[in-house]
Amino acid sequence: MNLQNQTAIVSGGLGDIGRAIARELHSHGASVAIGDIHPACDAKSLLDELGSRARYDRVDVTDAEAVFDWIRTVESSLGLPTLVIPNAAIVTLSTLRELTPAQWKKELSVNLDGAFYLALEAAHLLTSRSMPGRIVFIGSWAGSVPHAHIPAYCVSKAALRMLMKQLALEYAAADILVNEVAPGYVDAGLSGRVFEKDASSREKARKEVPIGRLIDPAEVAVQVAHLCDPRNRHMTGSVLLMEGGLSLCKN
Fold first, then answer.
1. Is 3:30 a contact under the CB 8 Å cutoff?
2. What CATH number is attached to the domain comprising 129?
3. CA 94 from chain center: how many Å?
4. For residues 177 and 238, what is the distance between their CA atoms, to the nearest angstrom?
5. 173 falls within a domain
6. Fewer beta carbons under 10 A from the terminal one: N or C of the chain?
7. What per-residue confidence (pLDDT) applies to 249?
8. How many domains does the chain have?
9. How many CB atoms lie within 10 A of CB 174?
10. How many other CB atoms are found less than 10 A from the CB of residue 4?
């Protein structure tokens, strides 16, 4: 895979999955722009690892203008993003009855609105310059299976999937291919935080997976890179489901 002369932009880039994606795309030659809400000092080790073809910007994806400014800053320093990875997400552990309006609004704002701002503006700029591109949303198998303890997350990921399909249809003729990677239980990131709060939940989750394994963030990153590969010319509007068979047992 050759991603030289490509620029990737990754929101939520300091999370476990975001870092893995940045490393994977960079390893194939892409320049990588990482965005997150954390202070710049938190990105130092990753930037030291990636070197001069990487940058970090502190950005709140719920602020549309901040996202637009971020994309233009990246364009001026690394080049117009051609590989767009809306990855920023949060999760609220709560039943639907206990979920507050503020929690609901915040989760959909980050998980759905933030992805919309990044993907749509990047696609608009690519089409204005007649450039092809790849957009890969980081979704979840929870977008198609209800989970009583993370209702807002499930709703946001279900909506994200339809956003992906709408964008795929809208931009297909412009050679901007839009897809989703939908992991199951990742042994890090948001799932990892759930496992940390309840140590027994990790083993319980592993046993639920038919193949008996949890997912490493680096494995998610490999699938993202696959969808970014210029040789992948026909896959758009698709969900790359990587959940070890969970959907075979739960619906």
1. yes
2. 3.40.50.720
3. 23
4. 10
5. yes
6. C
7. 86
8. 1
9. 14
10. 9
